[in-house]
Design a protein that fits this description.
175 residues; mainly alpha; Four Helix Bundle (Hemerythrin (Met), subunit A)
Length: 175
C-alpha cells in the first residue's frame, strides 16, 4: 500500500500494528493467554498491555473532546504530570487487575475503532499542522494520534512478543 498522505499512513500503520498485536495474542493457545509471566516489568500478561492501551485511548479521547470543545485538557490526567507518567501507568495497571482478557480485548477493540474514526474526521492539514488547534499547544494532532495508536502499538507488540515467548518456552519445558 502506498499512502498518499500522512493521515493515510497513520491509519495504515495503526491498523497494521493493531492487527499484528492481536495476531501475537492469538498465536498463544487460548487456554494459555491469561498466564502472567515472571518479569520485573509492570505488564505481566496480555490483559495488562491491552488495558494500558485502552486507558491511553480513553485519555486521548478526553483530551480531544475537551480540546475541540474549546477547553484546555488536563494532560496526561488529573493529578499527574508528564514527569510522573510512571505513577500514572502504575495506577492504570492497578485499576484493571479484575478485568478478564476477553473484556480487555473487547474494550480495546472498541476504543481503537473510536480513535480511528476520530482520525478519519480530519484532513491531512489539520492533523499535520502544528498549533492548528489551540489545545495541542506547540504540537499537532498527529503527535497525539500516533503516540496513542501506531507508536503505542509498536511498544505493545514488543511487550506481547516477550509475553508470548515466555509462555511458549514454559510450555516447551513442561511438555
Amino acid at each position: 500500500m502506498s499512502a498518499n498522505s500522512e493521515k493515510e499512513r497513520l491509519l495504515y500503520d495503526s491498523e497494521q500494528n493493531f492487527q499484528l498485536l492481536l495476531n501475537i495474542i492469538e498465536s498463544v493457545p487460548s487456554r494459555k493467554r491469561t498466564i502472567s509471566i515472571e518479569t520485573e516489568d509492570r505488564d505481566k500478561n496480555f490483559r495488562d498491555v491491552m488495558m494500558h492501551l485502552y486507558e491511553w485511548h480513553a485519555m486521548l479521547e478526553r483530551w480531544y473532546r475537551e480540546g475541540m470543545d474549546g477547553d484546555t485538557p488536563i494532560m496526561p490526567a488529573a493529578g499527574y504530570k508528564w514527569s510522573t507518567i510512571k505513577l500514572l501507568n502504575k495506577k492504570i495497571w492497578e485499576s484493571y487487575q479484575d478485568i478478564t482478557l476477553t473484556q480487555a480485548l473487547k474494550k480495546l477493540t472498541l476504543s481503537h475503532a473510536r480513535v480511528m474514526s476520530i482520525i478519519q474526521l480530519h484532513t491531512d492539514e489539520e492533523i499535520m499542522t502544528k498549533k492548528y488547534y489551540k489545545w495541542t499547544k506547540t504540537s499537532n494532532l498527529y503527535s497525539y494520534f500516533a503516540a496513542n495508536t501506531s507508536k503505542h502499538y509498536a511498544w505493545a507488540i514488543k511487550k506481547c512478543e516477550a509475553i508470548a515467548k515466555s509462555i511458549n518456552e514454559a510450555e516447551i519445558k513442561v511438555g
